[in-house]
Design goal:
single chain, mainly alpha
């Protein structure tokens, strides 16, 4: 019963995305960049800095392309790139326990990275803050999946909540902060001008 309720809750953001996308029209260049950055994100996720025993860990800045898409184009583009990346990850060997777990691990986290422009994209400080919040949402989704579906992997005597927190925030969280550090160094305004050229 609980898993069914959780599944309904997880479907809500996807339904909102579908409703939002019904009126959105992608430009050709935008579609090409979404495809390229989605593929880049997936490929980078295959290159680990630190790999944990049950999967996950710190990868080679795989979040960075998804954070950049919404800053370069639009939130819709960022959300779509995240959805594509998560779907690729799932199809290329995702671990499936329950439909809600699939959404919490492969859909919502990557789509959340497409919200990096939530506080605007004309000021670098706002972009950095928006990216940090997007990473928090990404990591929280993985954390919830860990609590509800992977608690059995917690060491004896450790609560699933603490285990999932340590596991996900030391992996996804650290990688996300590293990606934001790189974003702080990138001349985003110049990159956005190049991206907008026809």
């Amino acid at each position: 019963m609980f898993n069914s309720i959780l599944l309904v809750i997880c479907i809500i953001p996807l339904a909102l995305y579908v409703l939002k996308m019904r009126k959105y029209k992608f430009k050709t260049k935008e579609m090409v960049v979404i495809a390229m950055f989605s593929a880049m994100s997936y490929i980078l996720s295959l290159i680990p800095f630190v790999r944990y025993p049950q999967g996950g860990g710190i990868n080679m800045f795989s979040m960075l392309p998804l954070l950049l898409v919404s800053v370069l184009y639009s939130r819709e583009a960022g959300l779509t790139a995240g959805l594509i990346t998560g779907t690729i990850s799932l199809l290329m060997g995702g671990y499936i326990m329950h439909p809600a777990q699939v959404i919490l691990d492969y859909t919502i986290p990557d789509m959340a990275l497409g919200l990096s422009d939530m506080f605007g994209k004309d000021d670098k400080k706002r972009i950095i803050f928006g990216s940090l919040v997007a990473i928090l949402l990404n990591t929280t989704s993985h954390f919830l999946s860990g609590v509800f579906f992977f608690g059995q992997f917690a060491p004896e005597g450790m609560s699933p909540v603490l285990y999932s927190f340590l596991y996900n925030f030391s992996g996804h969280g650290v990688e996300g902060v590293l990606c934001v550090g790189i974003m702080a160094l990138i001349p985003l305004a110049n990159l956005r001008k190049v991206a907008s050229l026809q």
